[in-house]
Write a structure and sequence with these properties.
Among the domains are: 71 residues, Orthogonal Bundle (Arc Repressor Mutant, subunit A); 105 residues, 3-Layer(aba) Sandwich (D-Maltodextrin-Binding Protein, domain 2), CATH 3.40.190.10. Helices cover 42% and strands 22% of the residues. The protein contains eleven helices and eleven strands.
């Protein structure tokens, strides 16, 4: 039991706890908060007194959270973010005056395809809003939404749990990309070529397996993968100077065929179409700022030419 009632705890102390948790360093936390290290240390002492726990244990230059601190932060972070954003917007979201920061999960494929237009629309309607773009693995996306470390992410359909809502945006399909003059000469790979080719593959999963691997396994195919990357946009460069075969979204592949000596070919499968969706947590479903940001993303996706 803490020595003081939670309603009497200074909100600023919770902000400090959240910042120390994120930075794991008192000096850096102080810089983020525009506070001296001694002031941060003094605030941490108050928090330790309140919760009757050390909260953070120093290991070298890092402040490692205790189990209690982990639990507090897991419950605190989403609510604290909503409170601070509401205070910043004075309880009423106005794009023209808001200074909020939106953290959006985008792969480099989607950055190439959508981000320039998203930035243009945001700058036109909300010049003081900041966009923070991150690339999160499949395994971390739900936790990042739950913890308030991610507002929205775009990606293919997966089971992210009951607390994650989604909206379909557009369709694309997986194609192969090879260098000009590659030994594969047709417009469609044969099953034999698929089995013998050496691939550079994309994976946004900590397991090293990607969307296409799941898809191909269901169809009874297995690729000979030599290189795995998390950055889809590097695949065209890698295949342009080798006999590697890359797989990537057709909309992105078409961009690179305009300025690299590469061309696209089809996989020997009837359908490799996939849908890109935007996902968000139920905590933010009715937040006016979130609704506005999701609308911006939807408008940009709707402006894409047909696949």
């Amino acid at each position: 039991m803490s020595k003081t009632n939670l309603p009497n705890l200074d909100l600023n102390l919770l902000v400090i706890l959240d910042t120390i948790f994120a930075e794991r360093n008192l000096t850096i936390a102080g810089q983020k908060l525009f506070m001296s290290q001694s002031a941060v240390s003094h605030s941490l002492s108050k928090l330790r007194d309140h919760f009757e726990d050390r909260l953070f244990i120093r290991r070298g230059n890092m402040m490692v959270p205790t189990p209690l601190c982990e639990n507090i932060h897991h419950s605190l972070n989403p609510s604290l973010k909503i409170i601070l954003q509401s205070l910043e917007d004075r309880g009423e979201f106005s794009p023209a005056t808001s200074k909020r920061t939106f953290c959006i999960g985008l792969s480099d494929y989607l950055c190439n395809l959508l981000l320039p237009q998203i930035i243009a629309k945001v700058r036109a309607e909300a010049p003081n809003i900041t966009l923070r773009i991150v690339q999160a693995t499949y395994e971390k996306r739900t936790a990042m939404l739950q913890d308030g470390n991610l507002d929205i992410f775009l990606g293919c359909s997966r089971d992210y749990g009951a607390g994650v809502l989604w909206e379909g945006l557009f369709f694309d399909r997986e194609v192969c990309i090879i260098r000009d003059g590659h030994p594969i000469t047709g417009q469609v790979m044969t099953e034999e070529e698929l089995a013998s080719a050496e691939f550079v593959a994309l994976s946004l999963s900590e397991s090293g397996l990607g969307f296409l691997e799941d898809f191909l396994c269901q169809k009874g195919f297995q690729r000979n993968i030599k290189v795995i990357v998390q950055q889809e946009a590097v695949i065209p460069s890698l295949v342009s100077s080798s006999d590697l075969v890359g797989t990537l979204a057709e909309r992105l592949a078409q961009i690179y065929t305009n300025f690299l000596p590469v061309r696209t070919i089809q996989l020997p499968l009837e359908n490799t179409t996939f849908e890109v969706l935007q996902h968000w947590h139920t905590l933010n479903d009715n937040d006016p700022a979130h609704i506005w940001m999701r609308g911006i993303i939807r408008e940009v996706a709707e402006s894409l030419p047909p696949a």
